[in-house]
Design brief:
By secondary structure, the protein is mainly beta. It has no helices and eleven strands. The strands form two sheets. Strands 2, 4, 5, 6, 9, 10 and 11 form a seven-stranded mixed sheet that branches. The chain has a four-stranded antiparallel sheet with strand order 1-3-8-7, with no helix packed on it. A hairpin with a 4-residue loop joins strand 7 and strand 8.
Length: 127
């Protein structure tokens, strides 16, 4: 099992930047797909960025070119660098993980398939 703790959220004006962090503790020897999800009030939780294997990454079309997911294995920390923020990026942002149980690296995208979640950090972008 792993525990995830996010930080770095806050309020920013449109066009600004924020960097979210997620510290991972517990069983860090297993392989995990790590991801950032977000959820705005009244909306479904959506995947923002995913990282797995040898730092293979993918991002939602809505954030491509603006958000970058990365990780520092030495610090057991996942990051989400967000730039050119828009009011529609306003949401609660969650760090999530699922264990990779097969030899081939893979990463699910559906939030229901992620086993571990942080408590969330709020990002508010004003126009």
């Amino acid at each position: 099992q792993v525990q995830l703790v996010e930080s770095g959220g806050g309020s920013v004006q449109a066009g600004g930047s924020l960097r979210l962090s997620c510290v991972i503790s517990g069983d860090t020897d297993s392989r995990y797909c790590m991801a950032w999800f977000r959820q705005a009030p009244g909306q479904e939780r959506e995947g923002v960025g995913f990282i797995y294997g040898n730092d293979t990454t993918s991002a939602a079309d809505s954030v491509k070119g603006r958000f970058t997911i990365s990780r520092d294995n030495a610090k057991n920390t996942l990051y989400l660098q967000m730039s050119s923020l828009k009011p529609e990026d306003t949401a609660m942002y969650y760090c999530a993980a699922h264990e990779v149980r097969f030899e081939r690296d893979y990463c699910y995208t559906r939030p229901t398939l992620f086993e571990y979640w942080g408590q969330g950090t709020q990002v508010t972008v004003s126009s």
